[in-house]
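Researcher: We're teaching a course module on how sequence relates to structure. For the next exercise, students receive a sequence and then see the predicted structure as tokens, so they can try to spot secondary structure elements on their own. Here is the exercise chain.
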Amino acid sequence: MYAAVKYELMKKYQKDRHGYVDAKEPIIWDIMRRASSWSQEVGWRAGETDV
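Model: And here is the predicted structure for the students to work with:
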């Protein structure tokens, strides 16, 4: 899903980087919302960082 949208937007905004980034924003937020919901449902927590 994400890859298909990226390729579609890449063609549409080939010479407009800002337009591409702006057009991609809604799907990024959708992915973030879904990831947040999933992590809350399953109780996932980030592990320790390697920094």
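Model: If you want an answer key for the exercise: The chain has a mean pLDDT of 94. The CA atoms of residues 34 and 48 lie 22 Å apart.
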